[in-house]
Sequence to fold (284 residues):
Amino acid sequence: MSRFGVALRLLGLILFFVLIVGPQALSLRFGWPLAERLPVAFHRLFLRLFGVRVVERGRPPGAVPTLVLSNHVSWLDIPVIGSRRPLSFIAKSEIEGWPVIGLFAKLQRSVFIDRARRKATAEVNQAVAHRLMRGEAIVLFAEGTTGDGTRLLPFRSSLVGAARAALTEPGLERIHLQPLAVSYVRRNGLPVTRRERPEIAWYGDMELAPHLGLFLKGGPLDAVVTWGEPIAFDPASDRKTATAEAEAAVRALIQAPPAAPEAPRLRPPVPRAAPVVASEPKSA
Fold:
């Protein structure tokens, strides 16, 4: 993608963001349904502009309050997951202060956690519990950090305590913990190689700006979002056991071989009509 093309796409994205900031803020304040739709539209526009195609598999969260436990590969996970349906994320507190990104995270009703504070986990659990009680789906990147996309880091069970906190409220008897696997499988139509992983995965001490540059130069990208079977979580459930079960499910989904791209559907050939032979008139 040329610099001019990148600049043009960024300009379009910025203009759309400016247009939706006001309506989104008002929708959040007055509880309008538009507050759930605008972030999805923004994520889908971003993916379309920058050549990211997402294939969704499995059954997404339903009517039961759901805490989604996902792996975390890159900043790109946010628009990839957020483009599928209305969701909120649990994010680290540093993001809240980032220009533009922090504002958008707030407008998407993200829950921020300061991992340096001991009391932060309990506070976030209460905030997430309140949201789960309202029937919302919240995404937790359960590894606590990003990985390189080739292996899954251990899931942390501390924030799954939000599910336990929500169950203490009257009228809520069960919550779902739903595994979610995000994989980046093809670039420019070819399988992603280990050498290309640093252009997609954002982990360790990588600087964001150079990583964005590599992503923009890389070409079209195919991502797969796979929902695992929900795990019922009730007052008798063990938090660590349920977290380990979700981790095993995500690991199995990641290690599953990617399905081949769907072949284009061809229309069956239209049968040709038999030629009409004109009969000769009978002689008198």
About this structure: The beta strands are 52-57, 66-70, 88-92, 111-113, 137-141, 175-187, 190-191, 221-227, 231-233. The CA atoms of residues 91 and 112 lie 5 Å apart. The chain has one domain: 51-255. The chain is about 40% helix and 15% strand.
